Amino acid sequence: MNLSDLAWPAVAGLSKDMPVVIPVAACEQHGYHLPVFTDSLLLGEIVRRIAAKVDSQVLFAPLLWLGNSDHHLDFPGTVSAPPRVYLDTLIGLAENFIQHGFRRLVFLNGHGGNDTPGRQAIFELRQRHRERDDLLFLFATYWSLGASPQEGAFAQREMGHACEWETSMMLRLAPHLVGDFQHAAPVEFGTPFTPAARGWITRERSVIGHIGEPHLATAEKGEALFSRFAADVESMLQRVIAWDGKSWNG
Ligand SMILES: [Zn+2]
């Protein structure tokens, strides 16, 4: 069910073992051919698909479209919560639901830049509430919950940016918002000092803004990705629903 549809007494009456899903995405540049709201639109579609499957068992918070996108700020249209503001925003959101009695909180992520502050947020939340043994904090990025799509004709083996995967899903979801992707030149992922992690901003990797191979996108690939990712998220949520409320394993 959607939090936004409920009056407060209805929220008060919910089981506090009901998982709360907080979708978090972004509003940031997605190259020449995709709109800045791409991450939020795609995550919204994932949520719509899984809500139809688990509607009575999960409470969905409204999607938080403001993400941590500072690395894209050289591109107009990007709006971003600075990393520490974003970290505190996620912690504050979680604290609100804890105050209302909920115990199983899942940040469902649709933007790579949210990953580091999101993991830090759940780490800090667990330390803050270390006297509690009944809390579950998860941060889950929808394209990282299963094996990489190997089947079919996918060229990419990982998520890029405004890439084969995202452009395909946008072609499936909102083709009227997709620009000239057929002539977008491939942008390599590169190997920046791996396996070390390098701090980066987007324009040093791509002057256009995309990373990957958007010219290979099709709506059929988009449907395959949506189906796969929605199934991965649903099975993760089923594990959260089935959790016994105290075990380490889940
Ligand atoms: Zn994106």
Q: What would you say this structure looks like, in words?
A:
With 250 residues, this protein is an alpha/beta fold. 35% of the residues lie in helices and 8% in strands. The chain has helices at residues 8-12, 38-54, 83-99, 115-128, 164-173, 219-242; strands at 20-24, 59-60, 104-109, 136-141. A four-stranded parallel sheet has the order 2-1-3-4, sandwiched between helices. Strand 3, helix 4 and strand 4 form a beta-alpha-beta unit. Helix 2 packs across helix 6 and helix 5 packs across helix 6 (219-242). The radius of gyration is 18 Å and the shape is globular. The model has no long low-confidence stretch (mean pLDDT 96). Zinc ion binds at residues 30, 38-39, 161, 166.
Keywords:
about 250 residues, alpha/beta, four-stranded parallel beta sheet, binds zinc ion
Taken in chain order, the helices and strands follow as: HEHEHEHEHH
Largest sheet: 4 strands, parallel
What ligands can be seen in this structure? zinc ion
Rg from C-alpha positions? Answer: 18 Å
SSE-based structural type: alpha/beta
